[in-house]
Specification:
It holds the Pfam family GerE. The protein is an alpha/beta fold. Helix content is 57%, strand content 13%. Strands 2-1-3-4-5 form a five-stranded parallel beta sheet.
Length: 228
């Protein structure tokens, strides 16, 4: 039996480790834990390089701190999935938030689950997302659909902002979407780090945002694909 490799990402390390231990008691699940999104970045990349990819990330809705409605986490999810397309992200939340849930589903998350749900329910979700299912509570569905409709209406504005970028700035933005840092972008595009820094600053300015994560989140909502 092939085991489902799961990584639990939560700022409360004791919670993450306890949940990973409970999941590993199942014969078809192998789980580990880490204390934050930045650490998860390294583990996702390490698993990819080792040719033993993770299948499911259970990530705390507040893993990025007090960001507005999951903006930073949405960008992080996009970067994870760009590195491992078969990775399925499920958000663990203390309370329902239709706006954040819609944003994270748009970024590629496959589910939103209450932290106080039963282990049986969580295992159902873990196994379900591997079968390409999407899981969220019925009580959250109406609000999420309303938010997704609103996001669609705003998408044209995001697309207009992206269209203001030069071809080179768009290339840099796509590299940012793929989770590449300044040095990696410079090597990929055969540019100096200083030139890449200038392009990144121009991208932020034209998109009207103040951080790379916010730029990535906006670009994803505009439908910009990550660099191959």
């Amino acid at each position: 039996m092939e085991r489902i490799r799961v990584l639990v990402v939560d700022r409360h390390r004791v919670f993450a480790e306890s949940l990973a231990m409970a999941l590993t008691a199942e014969p078809d699940v192998e789980a580990a834990a880490t204390g934050g999104a930045a650490a998860a970045d390294r583990l996702v990349e390490r698993a990819r390089e080792a040719g033993d990819p993770l299948r499911v990330l259970l990530v705390d809705a507040g893993a990025e701190g007090a960001e507005d409605a999951g903006t930073a986490l949405a960008a992080r999810i996009g970067a994870w999935r760009a590195r491992q397309p078969r990775l399925h992200v499920v958000v663990l939340a203390a309370e329902d938030d239709p706006r954040a849930c819609a944003r994270l589903l748009s970024a590629g998350a496959r589910g939103w689950v209450a932290k106080d749900c039963s282990l049986a329910r969580l295992l159902q979700v873990v196994r379900g997302v591997v079968r390409e299912e999407t899981h969220l509570s019925p009580g959250l569905l109406t609000g999420v659909l309303a938010e997704l409709t609103r996001e669609t209406l705003h998408r044209s504005e995001h697309e207009r902002l992206v269209e203001a970028l030069t071809p080179r700035e768009l290339e840099v933005l796509r590299c940012m979407l793929a989770g590449l840092g300044r040095k990696a972008v410079a090597e990929r595009l055969y540019l100096s780090p200083h030139t890449v820094r200038t392009h990144m600053q121009n991208v932020l300015g034209k998109l009207g945002v103040h951080s790379t994560l916010a730029a990535v989140a906006l670009a994803r909502r505009a439908g910009v694909p990550p660099a191959d």
